Amino acid sequence: MKIKKEKGLGLRPKEHVRAPKYNTDPNDLPEELKRKIETLEGIESFEKAKMTMVIEKHLFSTDMAKSANRLSMPLKQIKPESFLDEDEIKFLAIQEDWPVSVISPLLEDEALTFRQWNMKKDNGSVSSSYVLKTRWNEVRRKNGLKLNDVIQVWSFRDVGNNLHFALVLVEKSKDGGSSSEGDRCSLPSSRSTTPPSKNDVDGESTSCDIGQGTEAKEQEMIEGAQINDGSSSGNGRTSTP
What we know:
Blueprint: H1 31-39, E1 52-58, H2 61-64, E2 70-74, H3 86-93, E3 98-103, E4 109-120, E5 126-133, H4 136-142, E6 150-157, E7 163-171, E8 200-201, E9 204-205, H5 214-220, E10 226-228
Parallel strand pairs: 3-7
Antiparallel strand pairs: 1-6, 2-5, 3-4, 4-5, 4-10, 6-7, 8-9
């Protein structure tokens, strides 16, 4: 379905989406992940699960920070219409919480919350990210995820059209990474309304990212971003589209 770009939906022109470096064919995913997906209730077969790669990214300091407790997926790096329908995009655009099931790199079922975060810039425009939050800190620790690791986030659907995600670790950090909680970044929590520093990028901090490429920093830099979570105003309801 072709979706028109509407104000507030946070869709980005396709030229901003960077081509992945690693596999994008679901048939080439690890066999153990395929088998895991086929064991889930409501999945007829791996072939019918509508596997779609959402994003491939390095883990940034904000993804590692205990105070942030989220995995950030900037909208300018993804194509929401590739794995969400129009109603679901609109549902996320009003910053509702969406409980989802996530398969971790260790092939464990994890219950996380899928949500859109909007960050207001000084010029009045808004930059948005999708995030997986609530228990993200626990998931990354259990799976030994480190700073600068490369992961892919895949979406898939069951027979009831319920949304699921799978996290695939495609490359460990070449410098060994770090499991640091990132406290020195002084990042806002998932309920904070405190503006991040000017070194923050779509919720992903560059000021204390070790070994991040200049290209990634320049692509994601946003001056004067302010997180507009919505939860502080009592709009943090948990529901589904």
